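Step 1: inspect the first sequence and its C-alpha cells.
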Amino acid sequence: MVRSGIIAVALLATVTGAAAQSYPAKPVRVIVPFAPGGNVDITARTIAPGLAELLGQQMLVDNRPGAGGSIGTNVVAKAAPDGYTIMVASSSVMTNGPALYKNLPYDIVRDLAPVGRIAVVPLALVVHPSVPARTTKELIAVAKAQGGNMLMGNAGVGTTNHLIAELFMIRTGAKMNLIPYKGSGPALIDLVAGHIFAHVDQISSALPFIKEKRIRAIAVTTAKRAAAVPDVPTLAESGVPGFDASTVTGVLAPAATPRDVIAKLNGALQKVLATPAVRDRFTTLGAEVQPGSSEELGKFIRDDLAQWVKVVKQAGIKVP
C-alpha cells in the first residue's frame, strides 16, 4: 500500500512537471477588472504582445469591469488553476478594496496566487498655487491653522488616492476637509480652478499641470523620488519617516496554479519588462517598471493590506 502510494505521488509529480513544461499549449486569457483605457488596461496591453512572443501563445486581454474590480477578480479566483486565466491587477484590487470591503466573494491572499510585480505609479501631494506652502512642514502648519477646514479632493471612497490622503493626515495630524469626487480627474480639475486646495494624485495625471505650474507638488508618496519629478522630495525626506505608498500593478493567477507555471510566467514577465520599448512606454505613463518575484509580490500584498486595514479603522471610513 505504501509503495503504491509513493508510485502514485511520483506519477502525479511527473505529469504535473510535464504539463508545466508544455505550458502554454493554448491561448491565455488575461483578465483586466476595469474598463478599457485606464491604467490597468493600458498596462495589460503593453505587456501582452511580449508575453505572447515569449510563450508562443496569444494573450487575450478580457475586460471584466464592475464593482471596483471585484467582478473581474472573482472570475480569476474561481477559474481553473491551470495558468490559462490570469489577471493584471492594481493596488485597488490587491489591497485597497480588500481592506475596505468585508463581503468580497474571495480572499485576495487565499484565493489568488501572485505571479509578479509590473510597475509602480508614484503619487504626489499637490496644492493650488495660492496655498502659502512649499514644503510638507509648511503645508501641515497651514492645515492645522485652518482647523481642519482646508478643502482637499477625495477621488472616491476607498481609492488609492483617498487612502493615501487619510494616511497622510493620520501620520501628521494635519486634518483636512475631504471633498468627494467621482474620480481623480474631476478633483484635479477643481484643484486647478482653485475650488479645492490640496489633492493626492497619480504623477501620470498630475504631471502636465505640475510642469505648467498650475499646481504645486509638495512631495511624492513613495520611498524614493519619482523620476518624472526628481526635484520633488519624498514625504519621508520631508519629516514623515517611513511613508511609502503608491499604485502598484502586478499579475495574479488562481491560488492552486502549479508553481512551475507561475515561475514560467514570472520569467517571461521579467524579460518583457526589461525591453527598452516596454520600459519607455511605462515611463511616458508616469510609471516606473519594478519587476519582482512571486514571493516579493505576495509579501507586498500582505504588508500593504495590513497597512490599509489599520488606516480604514483609524480613519473610521465606512462604505454603504
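Step 2: inspect the second sequence and its C-alpha cells, then contrast the two.
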Amino acid sequence: MPVQFLTAEQRANYGRFVGEPSSDDLTRYFYLDDADRSAIDLKRGQLNRLGYALQLTTVRFLGTFLENPTEVPESVVRTLAQQLQIEEAIELSGYLTGEQKREHAMEIQAAQGLLSWTDRMVGFRLSRWLYALCWTGTEQPGVLFDRATTWLLAHRVILPGCTTLERFVSRVRSRVENRLWSMLGRGITTEQQTQLEKLLTSPDSGRGSWLERLRSGPVRVSGRSLFQAIQRLKAVRSLGIKLPETTIPPNRLASLARFAGTAKITAILRLPNARRLATLVAFVSCLEATAQDDALEVLEVWLHEIFNDAAKANKKTRLRSLKDLDKAASVLASVCRTLLEVDSLDPRDIIFANTPPAILLQAVARVDELVRPPDDVYFSELDARYRSVRVFLPALLENITFGSNATGQAVVSALDWLRSYEMRIKPQPPLPTEIITGSWDRHVKKSNGALDYHAYSFCALDGLRKALKRRDIFVAPSWRYADPRAGLLAGAEWEATRTIVCRSLDISSDPKQTLDSLSIELDQTYREVVENLPETRRSASKW
C-alpha cells in the first residue's frame, strides 16, 4: 500500500479549523469553566490571558496545538474575549513572538492530562485497535486515517503530524494484508499453486484465459446452459482449494475475490507473488458459492419454463380435443336421458336400440381418454420434454447436494433416491413416497404396480422448484441459496442476548405474552372486518 494516500483536502483540514465553528461547538468546546478561569487569571496581561485561552480551547476542539495559535476563526476570538472581558481589537501578533506560547502549551498539556504521541502505550493501544479494524473491515486508507484521528481525540492524545499518522496507518494496514496473504497461501501445495497460476494463462485453443472462463457465468436459460454451469462448478471443486482452519473474515475474502473477478489478467499478474496467490485462493473459494448459485438460478428459471410450457401445451391440447369430448358427452347424455325417462327395470333394450353398444363403449372410452381430474399435472406434455431434462439431471444430482428444513425433507429424500438410482448404488434404498401427492400418484404408479421413473423424476423436480422458491431447500456454500437459519442465534448464545434483542424490538421476552397479544389483535381485526362487511358490500355495489 502506498505510504501517501491522503487527499489534498484531508491534508489541508487535518488539525486545522475548517470554516466557522457552529454555535453548539462554541458552547461545548470554547466555554471557559471555573477551572479554566482560575488558570487564565494567573497570567499577566490581557495578551497572555487571551493567548492562553486560545491554546486551551483550540487543543480541546482540534486535538492539537497550532503552530500559530492566532490562526483561529473570528467567532472563536470574539467568544473568548467576551468571557474574559478583553477588547477584541487587541493585537495578537505579539503573543507569537514571546516565550509564553511554548510554556503555555506545556502547562495546558500537563493540566489537562493530555497524552503525547510519543508515549509507547498510545502507539500500542492505537495499533491494536486499528489492527482489529483493518482485519475485520475493508475500509479505504483515508477512512482509516479519519477513524484513527477520532480515536486519538477520544483518548485525549495530542495529534501527531499528518505524515506521521499517515505512515502509522499504512504500516498497520500492510501488516494486516501480509498476515491475510500468508494465511491464505499457507495450506496450498506446490501442485495447487501451479494449477492456480495456470488460471492466468490462455488455453491452446480459443481466446481468453482459464480465469476468464471460470468467472463468466451462464447468460442463457436452457438445459445445455445448466449443464455447463454445473461443469463450471465441478471445475472449481476439482482445484481442491480449502481455506485454512483459522477464521478469516468473509468480507476480506469477498474483497479479494471481487478484485480477481473484475480485474484484468495483466493486473493480477503484476501483483506480488504472495498477494497474487492469496487473491486466486480467495477467488476460487468464493467462486464455488457463486458457481453453485448460478447453477441453481438457471435451474429454477429453467424448471419454471418447462412446467409453464407444459401447462400451455396442455391447454392447447384440451382446446383441440373439445370437439371430440362434446361428441362423446352428447352420446352419454342421450343415454342418461333415456335412463331417466324409461320406467322399465331393464332399459338396456331401449338404450341399445337407440345407441348400439359399440358406439356407447367408444363414447365411454373417449371420455375416459379426454377427461382429466381438476388437479392434473399434465404429465404427457411434461414427458415430451424429458429428453431436455436428461441433459442436466444426472450432473445436477451428482454435483449438488441439497439440505432442507423439516418442510423440504421429502424433496431431499426423493432427490437422494434419484441420485442413488442414477449412480447405480447397491443396495437400492426404498423409494420415498412422501413426495407423491394425489395429482402425481396415478402417473408415478402404473396399473401393474411398477414405477414410472420419468413421472417420479418430474414429481421430484416439481417439488424442488417449489421448495427453492420457498427456501425450504438450501445448499452450501452459497450466497443466495444458503440456509436462512444459519445467522439465527440458538441455545446459550440466544439466551444470553434474548433480553437485549427483545428490548430493541420492543417486545416481551416471554413468547406466550407476545403470541397472546398477536392473537387478540388478529381476533379483533377479524371481528371488525365481519361487522363492516355488509357496509363494504353496499359501498362496492354503488360503485
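Step 3: confirm your contrast with the notes below.
Residues 491-542 form one domain. Residues 88 and 99 are 22 Å apart (CA to CA).
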